[in-house]
Amino acid sequence: MLLLPAITAKVRAVAHPDTGGAACVCAATPTPLADRPDATVVRHADTVAKAHAPGTDPAELTLRLAMAARLQDVLLAPLVPTPTPLRDRLVTFWPYGAPVDPDARDAVPWEATATLLARLHRTAPLDGLPPMRGPAKVARALARLRTAPRAETHPAAGPVLRAWAALPAWARAEAPLPGTPALCHGDLHLGQLVRHPAPDGPWRLIDIDDLGTGVPAWDLARPAAWYACGLLPADEWTRFLGAYRRAGGPAVPAAGDPWPVLDVPARALTVQTAALALTKALTAGRPLDEVEQQLVDACARMAPIPYQLAPGCPH
Fold it and tell me: Which domain holds residue 238?
């Protein structure tokens, strides 16, 4: 049985428990939202099913679901408290939420995102919650780059690999995370936000696969990296950072220069994004586009500089 038909049957059953998921119950047609090796997501009416990556630990995923259920003013709460086995995958079920409109640049919810993160970071994690998986995802991106076609001869690979090597061991998932652990999302970007109830309910964070304990600055690292690379306008970065501080976010000082804290996570996210972009380009046999080249150029600037940057320098 292929995964997509199987998960479609599961989401129908959860959406219509009194009928066993009969197709005639409503006019809605199940819609695939993602179908990748690491995640298959299907929506049916107001219910969404997600098949997590092969090898996902059921005990860890159950703890992450419990954390989302406990923190419903920040995280979208699951419809079912435990994952459902489906062949070699684990499936979770969620209410549908309306995502950020990628074409509405003026409506990007930077303030709401920052406020949610601040609340998340101030929340005590459940006992036993695993470490957030941010550094592990950077390491996985670099492993994919090393095995990509023609990576060893492409001129962009060197700067990315050197920037990777310049990161401290914890940011490469080769040593324990430093400091006092906080509750972290682990993979914050604008695709991890939805309005629930759709279409205009409050914003909530989704995707708990990387949720765990760790360095809270990691959750600010992607917008910080975009800003440092010239991909995020300064006013949007200022809105995001200011809202996080006003909400009492503990990842950065309440005032003053945030970059001594953000430096390593921002570098790591730049390396991860550049590695993934280069891998896609190499696999497709195409040149880097303008944004991808900017990421590689940022890696080239980063590599010779020790990661303890002088205050005030975003690379």
Answer: 105-302
Instruction: Domain count for the chain, please give it.
Output: 2
pTM of the complete model: 0.91
- Whether 314 is in a domain gets the answer no
Is the residue at 13 inside a domain? no
Query: Which of 125, 227, 238 lies closest to 177 in space, CA to CA?
Result: 125
Q: List pLDDT tens digits, range 28-83.
A: 788 999 988 889 999 999 999 999 999 999 999 999 999 999 999 999 999 999 99
pLDDT digits (tens, 9 = 90+) for 138-190: 999 999 999 999 999 999 999 999 999 999 999 999 999 998 999 999 999 99
Question: Which residue type sits at 292?
Answer: E
Specify whether 141 is located in the same domain as 288: yes
Same-domain check for residues 90 and 118: no
Reduce the DSSP state of residue 91 to 3 states and report it.
strand
Tell whether 52 and 109 lie within a shared domain: no
> CATH code at 90?
3.30.200
Amino acid at 181: P
Both tokens of 306, joined, read 């020790």
Q: Classify burial at 128, counting beta carbons within 10 Å of its beta carbon; exposed 0-12, middle 13-18, buried 19 or more.
A: exposed
DSSP result, 203-267? EEE---TT-EEE-GGGGGHHHHHHHHHT-S-HHHHHHHHHHHHHTT-SSS-SSS--HHHHHHHHH
